[in-house]
Design goal:
- The complex is a heterodimer.
- By secondary structure, chain A is α/β, with parallel strands linked by helices.
- Chain A has helices at about 35-40, 45-65, 85-105, 110-120, 160-170, 180-190, 210-225, 230-255, 275-280, 300-310; strands at about 5-10, 15-20, 25-30, 75-80, 105-110, 130-135, 140-145, 150-155, 260-265, 285-290.
- The longest helix of chain A is centred in the last third of the chain and has 26 residues, at about 230-255.
- The mean pLDDT of chain A is about 95.
- Helices cover about 25% and strands about 30% of the residues of chain B.
- Chain B is built from 5 helices and 9 strands; from the N terminus they run E-E-E-H-E-H-E-H-E-E-E-H-E-H.
- In chain B, strand 2 (about 10-20) and strand 3 form a beta hairpin.
- The longest helix of chain B is centred in the middle third of the chain and has 17 residues, at about 70-85.
- Classes of the chains: A alpha/beta, B alpha/beta.
- The interface between A and B is large, with 41 and 36 residues.
- The complex binds zinc ion.
- Zinc ion binds near residues 112, 116, 136, 267 and 268 of chain A.
């Protein structure tokens, strides 16, 4: 039994959730700043931090009102400690520490990616050993999990994250930020007609997306030099097919090599419908995707990971710091 | 009346407790780069030492900047969070004014990129609107305030700097401040717009 209040502010969303036991979510308030950052074509860190401090008390108030709990009954205060934008992380961290000190509750510093992974457990139990494909604007990783809260990063991107590649291609095609969801939609309307190189198609579990991104940019550039029209839907389709081909084939290879029971997907790009279809179709074992509402950043997922940390008494002192880079493997429990 | 004072907006980390106008204790660190890590632990230390609960604090007095962006958000986030879960009342003071106290002085804070935040004060009242100027413009400004001291990060503009009794300054200045009506709307004073460079390929 546990009642956990969690705060997530690692990027451009300020979110506070209250989770009872494993999956009784009493609230999951999210203040998104996407409309502001869209004007700049990407997240502007200092603007994100300013908006976080502006809305922090309102989000907390709303969360407490929605959940109808007595804050004294909360067992622990959880917060994203990193990775993420430092200035943004600071705001959530101070709020969490303040609550922990006011009510003498343990503080739990949660790794953002552990949160994305355990978003899946808000719906059903994860079966171990499993393989997790982490795909977002900042991450593209394959994580082997032998047991609960045990993380072994077996592959990662050598350059751009997959979400980043999507956003950059979106910019070349003059799509609104973030480009990922738009490209996913356009890809369905087009056909795979442009030749693009399969990125880092080797035996490793690592990814590389900068070459693919550059190929798209060059293709657009050359076309405009020759006054040729690009069919955006077709290019979106070709880009998505090639990007997903390598994501899916490497994930399936790793799943087989490590003999896992299931594959789970985590991070913002887990909302991509092309990825959902392709991985589900081609995988011989069960594939779990988080519900759409938990794909992007939210505090419910932080609470979900914190619930396990609470059971294992993984508490942090009040001088906990935020870091733009925290090592996921070091978060493993009992190793 | 239990008062909590906190400044994290610049080179200090200061946490103080006052009870009925009397200073119980002050922790003041100069050159702290760990405001985010240590603000709450220092506060905890003070509360424990005097057997006080954060819930029992009646008012909180913080600085609101200008200064380090991350720094000024530390005390303000603590204040805004507390305001939701306790009945604490809030006052905020300009960081430049906090360094000036009741002195007749020009208060200076490093704004990086060859710039400084300046404010001119006398008896706790602003004589000149707080502003951002180039370090090279500072001497020109001083010509108008010849008999004024230079306080704050004075070394940045070539004056000797002295450590300040921040808690005392803030407590005195707060006596003339009203409590903030809508703490949810409280934001730091940045005095500088975000240089939002467009993200390009
Ligand atoms: Zn994320």
């Amino acid at each position: 039994m546990s009642l956990i209040l969690a705060i997530e502010s690692s990027c451009d969303e300020m979110s506070i959730a209250i989770l009872k036991d494993k999956r009784e979510l009493l609230c999951n308030v999210i203040a998104s700043q996407i409309d502001t950052h869209r004007l700049f074509g990407g997240v502007v860190p200092e603007i994100a931090s300013r908006m976080h401090v502006e809305c922090v008390s309102t989000v907390l108030k709303t969360a407490l009102q929605q959940s109808c709990i007595n804050i004294e009954d909360i067992d622990a205060i959880a917060v994203t400690k990193g990775p993420g934008l430092v200035g943004s992380l600071h705001v959530g961290m101070q709020a969490a520490k303040t609550l922990a000190l006011t009510y003498h509750k343990p503080l739990i510093g949660v790794h953002h990616i552990a949160g994305h992974i355990y978003a899946n457990e808000l719906v059903e139990d994860i079966e171990y050993p499993c393989l997790c494909l982490v795909v977002s604007g900042g991450h593209s990783e394959l994580v082997y999990m032998e047991k609960e809260f045990s993380f072994e990063v077996i592959g990662q991107t050598l350059d751009d994250a997959i979400g980043e590649a999507y956003d950059k291609v979106g910019r070349v095609l003059h799509l609104p930020y973030p480009g990922g969801p738009v490209i996913d939609k356009m890809a369905k309307e087009g056909k795979h007609s442009y030749h693009l190189p399969l990125p880092l198609n080797d035996d490793s579990y690592n990814f590389s997306f900068s070459g693919l991104k550059s190929a798209v940019i060059n293709l657009c550039h050359n076309a405009s030099q020759r006054n040729e029209e690009i069919i955006p839907q077709d290019l979106a389709c070709s880009f998505q097919e090639v990007a997903l081909e390598v994501l899916v084939s490497k994930t399936l290879k790793a799943a087989k090599d490590y003999q896992v029971k299931e594959i789970i997907v985590a991070g913002g790009v887990s909302a991509n419908s092309g990825l959902r279809e392709k991985l589900t179709q081609e995988s011989p074992i069960k594939v779990m995707f988080p519900p759409m509402k938990y794909c992007t950043d939210n505090a419910a997922m932080i609470a979900s990971a914190a619930r396990i940390m609470y059971e294992n008494q993984c508490f942090s002192a009040l001088d906990l710091s935020v870091k733009p880079t925290y090592d996921l493997e070091e978060e493993s429990i009992g190793e | 009346m239990l008062s909590l004072l906190m400044d994290t907006s610049n080179q200090y980390l200061m946490v103080a407790l006052y009870e009925d106008g009397k200073c119980l204790d002050v922790i003041q660190e100069l050159g702290s780069k760990k405001q985010s890590e240590n603000a709450i632990p220092y506060l905890e230390k003070l509360l424990n030492q005097y057997h006080k609960e954060l819930k029992d604090v009646d008012e909180m007095i913080i600085t609101k900047g200008p200064g380090s962006y991350t720094g000024e958000r530390v005390a303000m986030t603590i204040a805004k969070t507390l305001s939701v879960v306790t009945s604490i009342k809030m006052k905020s003071i300009s960081s430049l004014a906090a360094y000036a106290g009741l002195q007749k002085c020009v208060s200076v804070i490093d704004a990086r990129s060859q710039k400084v935040f300046v404010g001119v004060f006398n008896q706790g009242k602003a004589v000149l609107k707080e502003q951002l100027i180039l370090i090279s413009e500072f001497e020109e400004l001083m010509k108008e305030y010849k008999d004024y001291e230079v306080v704050g990060q004075a070394e940045v503009v070539g004056y000797p700097s002295q450590e300040i009794d921040l808690a005392k300054n803030m407590y005195l200045l707060a006596q003339n401040e009203e409590y903030i009506d809508n703490v949810d709307a409280l934001v730091p004073c940045y005095l500088k717009d975000v240089e939002a460079k467009k993200i390009c390929l």
